[in-house]
Amino acid sequence: MSSLTLTAASSAQAIRRSRTWGRRLLIAGAWLVFALFLLLPLLVVLAEALKQGFGTFFSALLEPDALAALKLTLIAVGISVPLNMLFGVAAAWCVSKYEFRGKSLLVTLIDLPFSVSPVIAGLIYVLMFGAQGWFGPWLREHDIQIVFAVPGIVLATLFVTVPFVARELIPLMQEQGTQEEEAARLLGANGWQMFWHVTLPNIRWGLIYGVVLCTARAMGEFGAVSVVSGHIRGVTNTLPLHVEILYNEYNHVAAFSVASLLLLLALFILLLKQWSERHVNANRGE
Amino acid sequence: MSRRISPVIPGFGLTLGYTLVYLSLLVLIPLGALFLKTTQLSWEQFIAVIGAPRVLAALRLSFGTALLAAVLNGVIGTLLAWVLVRYRFPGRKLIEAMIDLPFALPTAVAGIALAALYAPAGPVGRIATELGFKIAYTPLGITLALTFVTLPFVVRTLQPVLADIPREVEEAASCLGAKPWQVFRHVLLPALLPAWLTGFALAFARGVGEYGSVIFIAGNMPMKTEILPLLIMVKLDQYDYAGATAIGVLMLVVSFLLLLLINLLQRRISTP
């Protein structure tokens, strides 16, 4: 009897021991993947950028073309993020507060830009507004340039970032339901008061989270912008396109210097994301 | 069209109207223009464009590498999601936060970083050269770039599902004598599979269309390492708008069919 208990105990111990080993192996695997796939590329960018010291690093960033590219990137982000934020709130509002036919189709359409290649996103605006496009002749008559100019870059950025805010808000607002808004209405609030004082505080962190993701993509979009940009230095180059031009000219140190600026922005965005995500989860837990 | 559940809450007409107008102007009409443009080609011309050997090679490469990257992510992503949800260990928070780096990092930056890393003279590329194979400028390099940019998809779709599976179920299975492998196969896998397929499909769709991170590491040799999105760019540079459009339509249709297939598979799995 006692020997039987002993064997059972020792086999349980053996199982536990193999568990800890399996566990250690899996954790080591995760660390390895992290180091090889995520950390190494990051370090390479910084190492290449600082290869010739801080002097060359900063001069690459302060060069007029780089500053013009930074300005254009800020313009594209500054226009596309607020517009898509407004759209996201409106779309999430009608999807989450009402029932209507075709709703799931609408949700699919909102997500559509995610499954379209960025290059195709650029292509469709060339087909619409390019010299040979549908509106090409009309635009030329009125001396308006969209493709190979700033408006095209903004349009392409808008297209690829359409779903971000709506996607974050829809599940959040569906979870929250309509009771609080209904209470506000019954207590005499008008539509705007209800939105400002009840809905907005409830969705605040989800909104910030969506805006952060939207900003990251708007800042870094490459394919779509590349098609409509025309690559005119200092005029229609965004920061990512500027990185490409420098890299293709074998000016690697400058390319990686500008890239490391974008990398630092990306790390900052990750921090903001963590911060807003924690608040979203805390609010959900309440 | 409208059947409101909550007549007290205002703004239905306004928000739905705004949503529809915005989506139509920005997404639907331009995408419609793409399909309309292809009708300018006759059926024979369309077939001639998409049947060209260079296009077919790019099609195989794009879908093949995207598929391979999605599978690779299926494995790596499952490992990461499992470890992050189930274990507490030093550095967990750092890894958890950094998983989203590929989404936050501009693809061009990822592209040049990976090219520098895997080029024959780069830190990893040199090791590969010594071992007798090349990573950059081969389909392997493209696959690795796609694996990087789509890394978060599987992890992020699996994490919430894994967190919701009660541990007692696994413990019960192993108490009843199931080996770890059997617990995985019969308890975890069925619960994870729908979410896994979602992550897989997202990674695959993104991989097929990805441009920025790939072109630097691909080498872009026609017939060998030229991806479909790049071929669209090449056609555009040659002012061959009809050709570019035809390839664009081909890409959209094939991706749509594959996603539909994955969707059907998922539905079959989740309703046994």
Name the CATH superfamily assignment of the largest domain in chain A.
MetI-like
**Fraction in helix of chain B:** over 70%
Q: Which whole number gives the mean pLDDT of chain B? A: 89
Instruction: Report the biggest beta sheet of chain B as strand number plus sense, adding barrel if it closes.
Output: none
**CATH-defined fold name of the largest domain in chain A:** MetI-like fold
Discrete helix count of chain A:
13
What CATH architecture label of chain B applies?
Orthogonal Bundle
* Low-confidence segments of chain A: none
* DSSP strand content of chain A: under 5%
Shape type of chain A: flat
Task: Compute the number of strand runs of chain A.
Answer: 0
Number of domains of chain A: 2
Overall helicity of chain A: over 70%
Oligomeric organization of the protein chains:
heterodimer
In the CATH hierarchy, the third-tier topology of chain B is known as MetI-like fold
Number of individual domains of chain B: 1
Distance between the first and last residues' Cα of chain A: 52 Å
The total count of strands of chain B amounts to 0
Protein name (chain A): Sulfate transport system permease protein CysW
Subcellular location (chain A): Cell inner membrane
Keywords (chain A): Cell inner membrane, Cell membrane, Membrane, Sulfate transport, Transmembrane, Transmembrane helix, Transport
Membrane topology (chain A): Multi-pass membrane protein
